[in-house]
Amino acid sequence: MRRNRFATFLLALLALVGTVLLVPSGTASAAAGSCDSASNWTAGTWYPAGTVVRYTDGKYYVAEHDNPGYDPLISTWYWDPYTCQGGGNPGTGKFPVTEAQFQQMFPGRNSFYTYNGLIAALSAYPGFAGTGSDQVKRQEAAAFLANVDHETGGLVHIVEQNTANYPHYCDRNQPYGCPAGQAAYYGRGPLQLSWNFNYKAAGDALGINLLNNPSLVQTDAAVSWKTALWYWNTQRGPGSMTPHDAMVGSRGFGETIRSINGAVECDGRNPAQVQSRVNSYQRFAQMLGVAPGGNLYC
């Protein structure tokens, strides 16, 4: 009995200071879900990423990363406030892709790419798939996931497969250099984040030190999804607008391709790659019950 009381005290203490702890053998685990199924937060309970809990103040929080019951008000890296609107996901409303649809879209996906990891990442950019009409929201979700499908071979690849490219992604002209190593900034994640300056910019925007810890993009599902959402919502790439602006501004799926890899694929450079993206978009749009719209090609 004394040992059990001490273990309980130790777990509670670790939850207060936010110390990283692996899942203890026999510790209860909470299921992920919406506000409708949210349980009351309890210190010492294992919460997978994407789990929604009701804190002691009556407010809801979503686990951004797996954790053993850290306090949401103290361990803010592990938890984000959660807005319940229609029992939906964080941000402006319910994400228009259900977990069942996600699994149907990516039947052979790597287990690293979890639906809960994506849901946990949405709080970083609540305007994503949450702006405009229901049709626009579904189109944007389909467009994002279609590009992800192409970039990762169906959410199979976590890292860039051509290892010969790895040393090329260090721009030594940047004042911060490449502190993680010459070959550390290769493509990772749903949109294959690469180059030291992109890791620096994404990390600064997300409040995560990715310049020094680029491997987080391939080991933490929520971080990985967040980097993809960072690019989608804030970067123009070789295009003239962000992919998010292209979809909510009715400029068409083709403009998302241009912003992601237009210098290599658009204007007739690689029509097969463009067609692959378009095929995925049309398939995903059909799954979500929405017309793909015009301007599909770049």
Automatic annotation (TrEMBL):
The keyword Signal applies. GO terms for biological process: carbohydrate metabolic process; cell wall macromolecule catabolic process; chitin catabolic process; defense response to fungus. GO terms for molecular function: chitinase activity. Keywords: Disulfide bond, Plant defense, Signal. Pfam families: Glyco_hydro_19 (PF00182). CDD domains: chitinase_GH19 (cd00325). Residues 1-30 form the signal peptide. Disulfide bonds join 170-178, 266-298. The active site is at residue 151. Residues 110-298 form the Glycoside hydrolase family 19 catalytic domain. InterPro entries: Glyco_hydro_19 (IPR016283), Glyco_hydro_19_cat (IPR000726), Lysozyme-like_dom_sf (IPR023346). This is Chitinase.
